[in-house]
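agent: user wants the structure for NADH dehydrogenase 1 alpha subcomplex subunit 5 from Botryobasidium botryosum. delegating to structure tool.
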Amino acid sequence: MLRFTRPLRQVLKATTGIHGVAVHPNPLPALTKTYESTLSLLSKIPETSVYRQGAEAITQHRLKLVKSAQGDISKVETALNEGQIEEVLITAEDELSLAAKMIEWKAWEPLEEKPAPGQWEYF
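agent: tool returned. relaying tokens verbatim.
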């Protein structure tokens, strides 16, 4: 009886079943690299920034899960519970892009103009 392991099944995977999302040939190294790049960018944001604190915590947690899976894609998909590994990779790339934009925008700096009275007051 031939039993396929998950890494072999990933190689044989023909489609993700999601329009426009192709099967990634080697997703875990790409995901690790993306998470490490995101952490590198986040280190350029001041430690007091709420965005950095949140994004860094989530990215470090996810990177730890990917590294602890020891190459098993199904373990990563189960641990992250965010769909297929290709979807997780897209989300990671989007976060990397956002981190670069946050550095460009300098979102941690105070507003140049004071907001109108009552603008940020809610119910």
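agent: one observation worth passing along. The two ends are 65 Å apart (CA to CA).
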